[in-house]
Write a structure and sequence with these properties.
Chain lengths: 118, 118
DNA sequence: TGAATGATTCAAGGATGATTGAAATATGGA
DNA sequence: TCCATATTTCAATCATCCTTGAATCATTCA
């Protein structure tokens, strides 16, 4: 993830509806969610969710694939991980004060680290 | 860092000039940089840098303090760390696929983790 | 006080982003 | 083929953000 992509990702996540969409898709996992289901959850019009989904897709944070009549959207884990990495490494130069809290979170969710730290 | 603050932080970082400012201030450390020095580095007008600095200050990512004639800006490490944490924990629900790359970065910059992982 | 320096504020503009509803596209089933 | 479903596209409007230059404020020093 380079600076250009990071700028686009930050812009994409700076809008409430879009942030909600990403959170829902991360929780939904690899199966993803259909545009209509997202629209219902987020409580916006089909037209509106389509606009924001296209915006997110263009930023690379989510991906789309047609499945019968529905279009299924999934979170693009690599990009999200890349954004976290960019923020810690490229933007913040790996400053311990900034990355320390991230290490705590990482320790709680990555199995390998649980072993070494607990 | 709650969602409202995160949205503001993402918006603040989605602009090239502002992202550059944050990067410069993180590298500058606790001593920070004066508005004029930042304007020179980033190559924008005093008026323009002032606009973006105010935007960043309002988002909580940087702080300002007058020192004689200059106004010194510093990166607010807590907020930046909070943003990384929000992205990993609140937004991405601690998904290993997303947090794993962050763990690598964290391992490289936090002294305690270097011992346990190398 | 008066001049110089460093920075902010203000107003005007142009550009970009968000929302809305109507129309269009694509798929699946009767 | 015809209809219903799922979603996107389009055009118009409104709001927000970015940029620019001139004017203003705060500080230091002669």
């Amino acid at each position: 993830m380079d600076q250009r992509q990071a700028l686009g990702a930050f812009a994409a996540l700076s809008q409430e509806t879009r942030l909600q969409i990403v959170r829902l898709l991360v929780v939904a996992g690899p199966e993803g969610m259909a545009a209509g289901a997202l629209a219902e959850k987020v409580e916006v019009s089909p037209s509106n969710i389509s606009f924001h989904l296209k915006e997110l897709e263009h930023s690379g944070l989510i991906a789309a694939q047609r499945q019968s009549r529905s279009i299924i959207y999934t979170a693009h884990y690599e990009s999200l991980g890349g954004l976290v990495r960019f923020l810690m490494e490229d933007c913040c130069s790996g400053h311990p004060e900034i990355c320390a809290p991230a290490a705590e979170v990482a320790a709680c969710c990555t199995p390998k680290m649980e072993e070494t730290l607990r």
